[in-house]
Sequence to fold (161 residues):
Amino acid sequence: MRPMTATLLSTLLVAALSGCEKYDLDRQMEALCKADGGVKVYEVVTLPVDRFDSTGRLITGPAQDMGGGLYVKKVTEGLRIEWRTDAIKAGEPFGKALISEGRLLRFSTRVVRTVDNKVLGEEISYGRSGGEISIGHPSQNFCPRPRPAPDVVQAVILKGQ
Fold:
């Protein structure tokens, strides 16, 4: 009877403590998001109608990997979109262990005027995955909630007449 009780108590203890990292990362994510999350528009530009497709989406060039987690898309000669993903905590939520390691990421997107490198707008969000007992897909969370609409590209680059 004692080995069974010890096994049961051990299982309950592991189950109780396994979500601690998840909740800690969620609290950290919420604090970061409150500090700088969301969309900020500093200047608006208008582009001709031919720079948008039939659904109204902006036509851009292909993304270029600039290294260090930075990707850039050219919109026009004078405008580019940059985005970056930075790991605040680089865990492996899809690991082979029963308890997934938590990961916390910061996502940033900026619209930049290339002539003077002025940031016309930026969007910052955060995402957490893992940090608990997980047999299948680990849980995820993100902020800000709800997602900003319009996003920074739609808010900064407007369709002309």
Notes: Strands lie at 38-41, 45-47, 64-67, 70-76, 79-89, 103-113, 118-129, 140-143, 157-159. The first strand starts at residue 38 and ends at 41. The chain has one domain: 19-159.
